[in-house]
Amino acid sequence: MNTQVMFYILPQDNTSADPFSLANLHGCFQAAYYYRQNQRVFVYTNDQTHAHTIDELLWSFESDSFVPHNLVGEGPKSGAAVEISWQAPTNRRPILINLTSNVPHFAHQFSQVVDFVPSDEHLKQNARERFKMYRQLGFQVDNQPASPIQT
Fold first, then answer.
1. What global pTM score does this model have?
2. Rounded to an integer, what distance in angstroms lies between the CA atom of residue 84 and that of residue 1?
3. DSSP string of 50-116?
4. From CA 149, how far away is CA 103, in angstroms rounded?
5. Helix %, strand %, coil % for the chain, to 5?
6. Pairwise CA distance, residues 142 & 37, whole Å
7. Roughly how many angstroms between the first and final C-alpha of the chain, as a whole number?
8. What is the enclosing helix (H) or strand (E) of 6?
9. Distance between alpha carbon 27 and the CA centroid of its chain, in Å?
10. How sure is the predictor about 20, in pLDDT bands with cuts at 50, 70 and 90?
11. How confident is the model at residue 122 (pLDDT cuts 50, 70, 90)?
12. What are the distances in angstroms from CA 85 to CA 2, 28, 72, 121?
């Protein structure tokens, strides 16, 4: 399998003190997009607290459409269309949304990986390192500006 990685370059976020908040919002946007494409998605988070943050954000993300999701181990046996976890996946899915600052050791299991380049300089440098690591793993890596999200 030839994994493709797309880095979305995030705009400057002057509305939040949390440099991860914009990545979280765009991660939910991407999860909703792939769900509407009938794709099953795995959202990888830093830890359990971060997973719960994404879970709550998806409940309130789009008022006019529901994105079926659950934390790993909850919901149906095969998981909802969008599964959120801070641990390695237990079900096969084609799409990985990486909301961590590392390249997941299981990234090769996915056909597509979505990652983000925040505007914060330290986090941007982490993204550059992930970019290099994905390339070293033989993945096809590209980037593009993130689309504006209407909130």
1. 0.90
2. 23
3. HHHHHHHHHHHS-TT----EEETTSSSTT--SEEEESS--SS--SEEEE-SSS--TTGGG-SEEEEE
4. 25
5. 30, 20, 45
6. 21
7. 36
8. strand 4-9
9. 4
10. low
11. confident
12. 24, 14, 5, 26
Classify burial at 105, counting beta carbons within 10 Å of its beta carbon; exposed 0-12, middle 13-18, buried 19 or more: exposed
Q: Taking 60 as the threshold, does the pLDDT of residue 19 lie above it?
A: no
Q: Which two tokens stand for residue 35?
A: 């769900």
pLDDT at site 16: 56
Question: What pLDDT digit, counting tens, does each position of 25-69 carry?
Answer: 999 999 999 999 999 999 999 999 999 999 988 887 666 678 888
Q: Which residues touch 50 (CB under 8 Å, ≥6 apart)?
A: 20, 86, 99
